[in-house]
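Running log. JK asked me to keep both predictions on one page so they can be read side by side. First protein, sequence followed by its tokens:
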Amino acid sequence: MFDRAQIEKLNAKLATATEAEAGAIIGALRDDAVGRCATDGLFWLSFVRTRDEADPSQSVKPFPVHLDYLKELWRVLSTEQQVVIAKSRQMLVSWIVVAFCVWTARYTPNQAIYWQSQQYDDAAGMISLPTGGYTGRGQFLEEQLPSWLKTSAKFSEGRIQYPNGSMIQALAGGADKIRGKVVSIYVGDEFARQEDQSGVYTAVSPLMQKGARAIFVSTPNGASNQFAILYHGRPVGGPIA
């Protein structure tokens, strides 16, 4: 991959390059960027766009990868096997978790990523919806990438399938929906509001023992639930170990 000095030299050559030389330089820079995206998730995020339905004047926006808390969250998602995130609204937490799932699926072969919400429609809305209308978030991220970064992913309701054998699948709530599946990454979305949190966690725990990653993300919903226990590391109100 090119270092900064090499990129600056190539950019400087563009000013005096012939059309053929400029095409070769741009092609080399593009190929370098494609390779870097596969290994550097934060660099890939610089090409990602999000959707803000509350801002009709600019509904499609660059992912704010410059924000320190999002950089740190990406680092945690990339390095920790179990991640528990208590979120608030409008912090782009759901977007970055979706982006992490998309990046992992498109650049790591044979990944089985499951996104579970209490209602299937909510999970599908995070992943993919039928083509031709409003798109799921993962689907939107893929469709908004520049043409030279696009891949031949296949979209269907609640599912994105990648040519490398990876997939992202939406699930409705319930331990029976995840039990018995072979999982690379499990996402429990709005986990504090899922009805069978304890059962789901019991089903997911053996998967983590086999190497799966688990991400539990939610707005808080009181102290007497499995999400609160995971977030605090103990039953709330109980003794500190």
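And the second, directly underneath as requested:
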Amino acid sequence: MSILAGIGDLVDDWLEVEALGQAPHYRHRSAVLALTSRDVPIVGTRAFLEACCGRIHSNWLAAIDAGYSNPSRENWRWKRHTELSPENKSPEIILERSIVSTCGDDWSNQMPTASGLVGPSSDKRAAVDLVFRSDPGSYSLIELKVESDNPLFAAIEILLYGLLFVWSRENMDALGYDVEVQPVLGAKSVMLSVLAPRGFYSDYELKNLGTALNAGLVEFGEKKGVPLGFEFCQLGSDYATDSTAECIRSAIEDRCRIWVAASK
């Protein structure tokens, strides 16, 4: 079982994704292509976010009723993982480790979010790729993509981690968390970001999705007492697995938002 069980169906309903392939259907490329060609605004985002948090909570209560309550104390800890096996050829992992190694102590990576919440082996791979601390109380939770998946898949992935953040923050005492150990949970503001090279976005246009997620998270965050937001971001320069440290720093420093709604 997963703490996120059932949320894929909520995503499909919210986005009105056509039921093609195996559920959840938003994971398929057909869904992101359909969103790219859709010019009707996405509505009901706040209600969708509240429903997701409700599902997370009910999944957790079900695990407690079944006799399990032992979340990992590693969840939400700030750690920097820079080691890389020579056998690991994943462009995303290589870039992730390179960012943390070269861009300073305000970058962390592979932050667990839900390990052990509903079972001893549950959700062990549910981790935020990158976390950036822009000041002591402001954080960005970042889903990093290079060559895998698509922008819709990435957006929902980081969104779910963001919802786990909100839920974990509300239930810190019951979960045994502490802001001294898990300082992210004491954040004064959190931005949820997808970060990728320019080519990752080239076949798509998801301004409607980005706008809906950001607006919904702003409203949702106001209710929850923590400012929230969403953004699609593009690396400031092209990336290759053999990029120098200077190129990596430049790509991060010059990263920019894309698909930004025009100001009214």
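Observation for JK regarding the second prediction: The chain is about 40% helix and 15% strand.
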